[in-house]
């Protein structure tokens, strides 16, 4: 199991705490430090939808003007933006066997998917 995120994010902290409390082994990938690839972003966008992978609730997105936000209207443009602004990736993203299975944190979804 691999968890992608940034360590100072509260949602990531909740996810990691849940995994530890449920004795689930995982590897953590800090995409602020280790980066992320175009291929990985494409995989996630194909699994969850680019509109879900792009975190529109975060400060990074909100710093953009309405005009700049409006220009990001498809997967290719979203991925280009996310490569430059990794903190705008919705997090955490959990993979099992190299396949993305969860995005964000929801106690019930984690229990259903990982139990």
From TrEMBL:
<protein>
    <submittedName>
        <fullName>Arsenate reductase</fullName>
    </submittedName>
</protein>
<dbReference type="InterPro" id="IPR006660">
    <property type="entry name" value="Arsenate_reductase-like"/>
</dbReference>
<dbReference type="InterPro" id="IPR036249">
    <property type="entry name" value="Thioredoxin-like_sf"/>
</dbReference>
<dbReference type="Pfam" id="PF03960">
    <property type="entry name" value="ArsC"/>
</dbReference>
<comment type="similarity">
    <text>Belongs to the ArsC family.</text>
</comment>
<dbReference type="InterPro" id="IPR006504">
    <property type="entry name" value="Tscrpt_reg_Spx/MgsR"/>
</dbReference>
């Amino acid at each position: 199991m691999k968890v992608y995120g940034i360590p100072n994010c509260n949602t990531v902290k909740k996810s990691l705490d849940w995994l530890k409390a449920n004795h689930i082994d995982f590897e953590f990938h800090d995409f602020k430090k280790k980066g992320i690839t175009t291929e990985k972003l494409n995989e996630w966008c194909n699994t969850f939808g680019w509109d879900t992978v792009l975190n529109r609730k975060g400060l990074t997105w909100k710093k953009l003007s309405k005009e700049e936000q409006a220009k990001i209207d498809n997967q290719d443009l979203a991925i280009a933006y996310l490569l430059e602004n990794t903190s705008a990736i919705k997090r955490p993203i959990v993979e099992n066997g190299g396949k993305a299975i969860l995005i964000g944190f929801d106690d019930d979804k984690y229990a259903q998917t990982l139990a």
